[in-house]
Amino acid sequence: MIEEKGILFVLSGPSGVGKGTVRKELFNQATDLKYSISMTTRDIRPGEEDGVDYFYKSREEFENLIKNNQLLEYAKYVNNYYGTPRAYVEEMLEAGYDVFLEIEVQGALQVKENFPEGVFIFLFPPSLEELKNRIINRGTETSELVLNRLKEARNEIEMMDAYDYVVVNDQVELAVEKVQSIIQSEHLKRERIAKQYKQLLEDEL
Predict the structure, then answer these.
(1) What is the pLDDT of residue 141?
(2) Recorded GO terms, molecular function (predicted)?
(3) What pTM, to 2 d.p., does this model score?
(4) According to the annotation, is 16 in a ligand binding site?
């Protein structure tokens, strides 16, 4: 029996492209994927659970993890740290689970540096016009902020070359189907299977 290790899948793309919506829909369906739980120094909110919503750490603990290269990526927002713990991801992969990470473009590039064997999927807006509408329809941002986000999105789209796959998010259900196809095809890649069979043959000899 081949013991197959899991694969880290990273879904990323510009702000407003619908990463969270695609991820939620993917996990609403029957799946063995494990969602990569982020770590944060912000206070736990009512109704949240440690190890379910986030791993909650003190600033000192978090900074030690940074120092010891125990995070695949991290960023600071409004005086709090957020990051992806390496240990959790590696434990899940070792146990044979695929791990799914939904993250901003900058974070994804950090993950690629720290974990190049991951599979990187870029979620693309059907058009910049559509992206603009999505950001405006959130109704949470001033027109100046919308412009800044669009400029940022343009820059992030230029970073697409760092990714393995591109999925256009024109319809959520179709985008989810494409992500599922990517997951399936990655498991069937010759290099992955060859590595496992080589190990199997060595064990037999």
Answers:
(1) 64
(2) ATP binding; GMP kinase activity
(3) 0.83
(4) yes
The CATH homologous superfamily for domain 37-96 is: Guanylate Kinase phosphate binding domain (3.30.63.10)
Confirm or deny that 15 is annotated as ligand binding: yes
- How far is C-alpha 4 from the geometric centre of its chain's CA atoms? 21
For the domain bounded by 1-33+98-205, which CATH number is listed? Answer: 3.40.50.300
What's residue 26's pLDDT?
95
Q: What are phi and psi of 170, to 5 degrees?
A: -90, -35
Determine whether the annotation assigns residue 17 to a binding site: yes
Strand 71-77 with 80-85, pairing = antiparallel
Residue type, 86: R
Amino acid letter, 98:
D
Residue 180 phi, psi (nearest 5) = -65, -40
**Does 67 carry a binding-site annotation?**
no
Q: How many CB atoms lie within 10 A of CB 127?
A: 11
CA angle in degrees (0–180, nearest 5) for 134-140-144: 85
Angle between helices 172-187 and 19-28 (to 10 degrees): 70
For the chain, the average pLDDT equals 89
pLDDT band with cut points at 50, 70 and 90 for residue 139: low
Domain boundaries, the chain: 1-33+98-205, 37-96
